[in-house]
Amino acid sequence: MQDKNERGFPVSKNPPLDKLKGRLKEKRLTYRDFAGQMGMSPSTLTEKLNGRAAFDSVEMLDAIDILEIPESEMLGIFFPSITPKEA
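RE: above sequence
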């Protein structure tokens, strides 16, 4: 069963992946269009964006390239529990 907020709406279990979803909206890309560019089916993309399947390393790089996300933000999106060491 999925967690829900006080209004009964589903709550994301991986808020960092919500950044990818937000970027899709900013770029006006549908899941179908983005999935095609990623070389996967829309259902596979949905599984990955909802945290039920993982992105592999090539898919991560493709996603940040297609969505024009700076590489510096990649860790925070795909590995939120890892914090980069400060220089």
